[in-house]
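Practice set, problem 2.
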Amino acid sequence: MHRLSQNRVPISRAVVSEYLGALAARVLLAEANLTPKPGLVDQRGQGCHTDMTLALMERSACTLEPFFTEMALAALQLPLSAMLRWELGSIGRNAERAMLRSTAGVNTHKGAIWVIGLLVAAAAQLPAGDAETIAERAGQIACIPDIAQPVPLSHGEMVRLRFAKSGARGEAMSGFPHVTGVGLPQLRRSRAEGHTEIISHLNALIAIMSSLDDTCVLYRGGVEGLAVMHAGAQAVLTAGGVGTPTGDATLRALDRKMLANSLSPGGCADLLAATMLLDEIERRSRYVTADNEEK
């Protein structure tokens, strides 16, 4: 049971699920607005996309909030089981349909529904868990087969099969290693070095881009495009990262390459949002724990 007040009064399931749903939507809004992101929609423009705008991304994120709330509530009501996996899958498909209605058919957040939905459900079941523990539970949920999963393959699944890459599904089933082992450590390092939250989040994105086999990039640019992203992102980190003169110049060069090759690292963006979500949950949990101990 969640206990966050000074007097340790249990908080209702509805309040907890609404909190997690709102937090998930805020993270997606923050990720969309983060600027500059190589190849991606941000406050500068559409990136590599001709059908997406920042306003559309924001509308989509707000549309998804009640569905993330439903996922959290389902996880509070059901144990780790096939029934929970079925329920989350059903809510996720409803979320996809609502997203497409709100965007006139544009796929803005399909990958994020999967990634963030799993983490929201895991966080609901593990209120006192740290980021790594929550990611591990999300992986356990992802490993349970969804018997109602539709037969048609997404672009990500087709790329996964063509290039023998694990994709978003494999990342989730492994407990989100690019979140807990790449994104979060880089975010923490940048923050400890005194960088702003914007710079720290951008460095986390670049770190993920330096090693993730992003199926969105593979779909658009094949293995050559993926190599462009990996090498360019690693160059930014080697130059000192975002927030340094050389790192910023290298980031701009990477952005030009991504745009020229129409490479949009959507999978990296989803994992950045996951990184931001787990970071927020963990930091708020530590604050509440410390506050209760002092009192």
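Problem 2, part (b): a different protein.
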Amino acid sequence: MARRMSGRSISIHRCYSVSEIADAFGVHRGTVLRWIRERKLAPIDHSKPFLINGGEVQDFINRRKPKKQKCALDEWFCFRCKKPQHAAFADAEIISANAKTCNTRALCTECTAIVHKRIAIGSLAQLRQSVSLSAPLHLKHLIE
């Protein structure tokens, strides 16, 4: 599993050595040197020891962050497939609700994993046009 890099410990006003960057991210020094060799990280100058500006490290972290994916109303985000998916058999169920939102559950069409999504109660009528909703007895009034 890939490590999640956190830039909280990196200051943009400071320069860091290869060892300091490796310790901050929990990777080997060779990994940081490979990033420099592949020009993913740019040192201040190419003399040794390499020093990398903190702002450059922050930019590197931001470039590596995955882009957010928006789900349509009739899609649920599947963490196993890592993308928005429609409900299998166009069927979903309401699990719980409060005054403004309700929690729904469905199956992913690709991997049949259980996927969850919070939906505004005002959007349920629009969701019912593409997905059949079911609910426990005490929440049936939301569907009607």
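Answer key, part (b): The longest helix spans residues 54-64. The chain is about 25% helix and 30% strand.
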